[in-house]
Design a protein that fits this description.
alpha/beta; 10 strands; 15 helices; single chain
Length: 361
């Protein structure tokens, strides 16, 4: 499952790395809405909630529609500005139909409104569909959608004010703290882009982001198979401290492609690819392989020993061991004329965390 961004014909300078206050604030708001996705920030989230005045806390809950399951595309800017106020000014320039359509994307799944289809502000069928999807997310989300469709100007002003209040309550302090880390990451990425090209810069983002073999596309490991084209507008890459482990992609038709990615950190291991996680789950799904693993977890064994222990033929054992080795769950060591197999315990132990990270990415 991948997102492909076609970059064929993108002009020089069309691939840019920059920091966005609004995108980082949105990442923080997602942490507050889904602290379970970010255990390393659970303490920060608890402290913020404890310090919020009741009115702001209530507003964040009513508007979490915009950042909990998915991110409204206008909250991840393609043209970052130095200040939160400057980026909110850019959002204010979006017309009501574009704003409402983007705001009513309730999940990161298949309910993205295709460019060119009727707006829920103008079309009764689109309106009912938007309200049905909102209702499925809960009463607060349904009420937010109803207000937005009834009076978009009032809701837009309220959302902007809420985000400005966040600046005073917690964002300004957090932004000052993360700015040096974002700047260090941007220096690294822009240096790689200049000296070694886009392939090296993408590889430094994550193993989940790569240059396509033909050199004309960016391939991102995401939830669904999708494709978009950068065109003359290019692609913007936004580092984030609060976004880990997510890679957020703006790719809907009509929007310039944007990727928000976790900053590079020396003490954080590279996430395992979804392909590797899938391979490991498939290898473990066979009952015979689980039996072999239970034996190997107690010590190194040869193919013959495993065959004898489980009353299997050596060729049958060899086939199962090969599947486990391809998944990276076994290590083979030759000792004289024998090959002994052992379990890669760290990789097996990490499978749960790797699965979670791959799903959340």
């Amino acid at each position: 499952m991948t997102l492909r961004i076609d970059i064929g014909g993108v002009p020089s300078g069309g691939l840019r790395f920059a920091a966005s206050p609004l995108a980082e604030l949105t990442a923080m708001l997602h942490v507050l809405a889904e602290p379970g996705h970010h255990p390393q920030l659970a303490g920060w989230a608890a402290n913020v909630w404890a310090g919020l005045r009741p009115e702001l806390a209530e507003r964040l809950k009513e508007a979490e529609f915009l950042w909990r399951s998915s991110r409204a595309d206008f909250l991840v800017p393609a043209r970052p500005r130095p200040t939160l106020a400057g980026e909110l000014d850019e959002v204010d320039r979006i017309d009501d139909e574009t704003y409402a359509t983007a705001a009513l994307i309730t999940t990161c799944g298949s309910n993205r409104v295709h460019f060119g289809l009727p707006s829920p502000l103008a079309d009764a069928t689109a309106r009912e569909r938007a309200l049905d999807l909102a209702q499925a997310r809960g009463a607060l989300q349904e009420a937010f959608a109803e207000r937005l469709l009834a009076d978009p100007a009032a809701v837009r002003a309220r959302v902007r004010q809420t985000l400005e209040w966040c600046g005073e309550a917690f964002f300004d302090a957090a932004w000052a703290d993360v700015t040096p880390r974002l700047a260090a990451d941007l220096r690294l990425k822009n240096d790689l882009l200049k000296r070694k090209g886009i392939g090296a810069a993408l590889a430094s983002i994550s193993g989940a982001v790569a240059l396509a073999p033909d050199g004309n596309g960016i391939v991102v490991d995401k939830l669904q198979d999708n494709a978009t084209t950068a065109g003359d507008s290019g692609v913007t890459f936004l580092p984030s401290v609060f976004g880990r482990p997510h890679i957020v992609a703006v790719h809907a038709p009509g929007w310039q492609p944007v990727l928000q990615y976790p900053v590079t950190e020396a003490d954080v291991p590279e996430p395992v690819s979804l392909e590797t996680v899938t391979l490991r789950l498939e290898a473990l799904a066979h009952p015979v392989r689980l039996r072999l693993l239970r034996t190997l977890a107690r010590g190194a064994h040869t193919t013959g020993e495993l065959a004898h222990a489980w009353e299997l033929t050596p060729p049958e054992v060899s086939r199962h061991l090969a599947a486990l080795r391809r998944a990276g769950l076994l290590t083979a060591r030759r000792q004289g004329r024998y090959v002994r197999y052992t379990v890669n315990v760290p990789d097996l132990t990490a499978l749960g965390a790797d699965l979670l990270a791959a799903v959340l990415r």
